[in-house]
Amino acid sequence: MNGAGDARMRRSPARRPRGMYLLPSLFTAGNIGAGYFSITQTITALTGSAQTHLDWAAIAILFAMPFDALDGRIARMTDTCSEFGKELDSLADVITFGVAPSLLAFVWGFHFLPDSVNAQLRMHLVQAGAFVCFLFLLSGASRLARFNISANPQPRNPGRPDRKYFVGMPIPAAAWLLAATVHLCFGLPVEAWWFAIVWLCLVGLAGFLMISTWRFWSGKEINFSRRYPAPLLVLLAIVAYVALRYSQVVLFVAALAYMFSGIWARAAYSWSRRRRGRAAREERSASQAGEPNPFRSV
User: Fold this and answer.
1) Is the pTM of this model over 0.90?
2) 230: in domain
3) What angle is formed at CA 218 by the lines to CA 216 and CA 222, rounded to 5 degrees?
4) What is the pLDDT of residues 218-255, one digit of tens each?
5) Is residue 293 assigned to a domain?
6) Which domain, by its residues, includes 83?
7) pLDDT for 246-297, tens place per residue?
8) What's the number of domains the chain is made of?
9) Alpha helix locations (H) across 12-49?
10) What DSSP state is assigned to residue 2?
11) 35 near 60, Cβ under 8 Å?
């Protein structure tokens, strides 16, 4: 009797405490909280002390990124993935990495253009800025929707078969780029018309990269559950210290490097593909030139 009971206990999987399913959602809630704080700081910047509030709005978006990176990993490591968690994570990303950075990008880059700028030029810049920032939000939401319905998406420029890639720039990375730029400038609003044009192009480029089918590194091959993770933890601690100590420069350079890595991967693939096609055409032409012509008179 006892033997049969022990066998049934071995066959039946161990039930996890219900609180385990709340753990990933707590990180997602932290993501939403950071996005909400960023939005409130951006709105408060409209009434006074713009530089301080805009810098805090950018820092809040950057602070949300570890929460977004950890909630999914924790769910997979604890085997507590659920459809509710997936949908909540997508909604959190729309708020924190879509609404918050698009609002911050508009207020920081266009709202505070001084009256000394040509009135017609200022009006066009503000209108174009509002439109491009909306396109950034729309692109981010579309990127998340495509990610949710794709079972095994493949980039147009495939990479190494042993690695996993994002198809299109992920929305947290695009928000990271905008927030890091604001933080690099210590939240000081844009007042030069030429800088507003550069900012307009950067926001538009980030939106385009999100809806593109180009490959971006996902980092999913990093394994935190291996038996001896000490070297990896030490490396992460060093990276975290440098990023916190020199946050303005390090975060901006890292965001630019990630963005250009996707652009470079696409350009390198296109160049390699054209080179292979040219080589194939030359080889085909050479083989045709060496064949005897049956219609040529002897």
Assistant:
1) no
2) yes
3) 145
4) 877 666 666 666 777 788 888 888 888 898 999 999 99
5) no
6) 18-288
7) 989 999 999 999 999 999 988 888 888 788 777 777 777 777 766 555 555 5
8) 1
9) 19-44
10) H
11) yes
